[in-house]
Design a protein that fits this description.
This protein has a single domain, classed as TIM Barrel, CATH 3.20.20.70. It contains 14 helices and 8 strands. β7, α11 and β8 form a beta-alpha-beta unit. α5 crosses α14. The longest helix is centred in the C-terminal third of the chain and has 30 residues.
Length: 315
């Protein structure tokens, strides 16, 4: 019998939730997904020291700002990762633009232009945007221009519905962070996979999409344990950390399919305007809190990256 990871790959596209070059070479995922935290960690590793030194030197010579150098470094990391995977590399728009549609579109276009200058076509890149109303509207504009988007920090069905209406290429519902919230509210309670709030959220979104022939890819993210991953086997894509990928590779046991488009319940499609979207999001305390927290945390790591660059420039 093959490993649980091999069986998972037969029904789900496996994505590596890491910027670790060695891990990607070893695990051979189809895609890579990054965020500011992953980029910051990657740039602090020896594998990217030459890239950091080169961009800092070039930036100093050209009089670039720390922000401009940070953008070049993020694309530099993505370019390296694109050489290691056959599929897509996600690159995130700055978290502090999460409520600015026009600025998000401008930054996304600049990211794509920078990748193309590095020889990486837009068909290899996914632009990551927070699943705010403004982020979803930015994605709608970009999708119309042939720039595929990955809507991240997604915690509820209202966000997923709005993404579907915008024609978004892919969404990343955050399993583990949903579970964390409910666990904290229940005094640290543990959930079996079939009762896990994060798992149930993704299953509901998957069922809604498949019931209505929605082409947007569902990619479960932010896993805390392999039980959550197994409970979503058959999902379009799953982005998984190297530690959990290794656990799945080491496990030899039958892995049944949990999600199947042929078994969709037939739930009706819903169209949300801005008022309905904001009201639904506001009514979900978990989604509201985790979306805001996620934006703040991504911005914290982005600011750490800017400080690292500023310190290097000063040195």
């Amino acid at each position: 019998m093959s490993s649980a990871l091999s069986q998972l790959r037969e029904m789900t596209t496996v994505v590596a939730d890491t910027g670790d070059v060695d891990a990607i070479r070893a695990l051979k995922p189809v895609d890579c997904t990054t965020n500011p935290s992953i980029v910051l960690k990657a740039l602090q590793s020896p594998a990217f020291e030459a890239l950091v030194a080169r961009e800092i030197a070039a930036g100093r010579k050209a009089g670039k700002s720390a922000l401009a150098i940070a953008d070049a470094l993020a694309v530099g990391v993505g370019t390296e990762l694109a050489a290691l995977v056959p599929g897509r590399v996600s690159t995130e728009v700055d978290a502090n633009l999460s409520f600015d549609t026009a600025a998000s579109v401008t930054k996304a276009r600049a990211i794509i232009k920078a990748y193309e200058a590095n020889g990486v076509g837009r068909d290899r890149i996914l632009i990551k945007l927070a699943s705010t109303w403004e982020g979803i509207r930015a994605a709608e504009v970009l999708q119309a221009e042939g720039i595929d988007c990955n809507l991240t920090l997604l915690f509820c069905q209202a966000q997923a519905m709005a993404c579907a209406e915008a024609g978004v290429f892919l969404i990343s519902p955050f399993v583990g962070r949903i579970t964390d919230w409910y666990s904290a509210k229940a005094g640290g309670a543990k959930f079996a996979p079939e009762e896990d709030p994060g798992v149930l959220s993704v299953r509901g979104i998957y069922d809604y999409y498949k019931s209505n022939g929605i082409k947007t890819v569902v990619m479960g993210a932010s896993f805390r344990n392999v039980g959550q991953i197994k409970a979503l086997s058959g999902c379009d894509r799953l982005t998984i950390s190297p530690a959990l990928l290794n656990e799945l590779e080491a496990e030899v046991a039958a892995l049944p399919r949990a999600l199947d488009p042929a078994k969709a319940s037939g739930v009706a499609r819903v169209s949300l305007d801005e008022k309905a979207f904001r009201w639904a999001l506001n009514g979900d305390a978990m989604a509201t809190e985790k979306l805001a927290e996620g934006i703040r945390l991504f911005d914290v790591d982005h600011q750490k990256l800017l400080k690292m660059i500023a310190d290097r420039l000063a040195g």
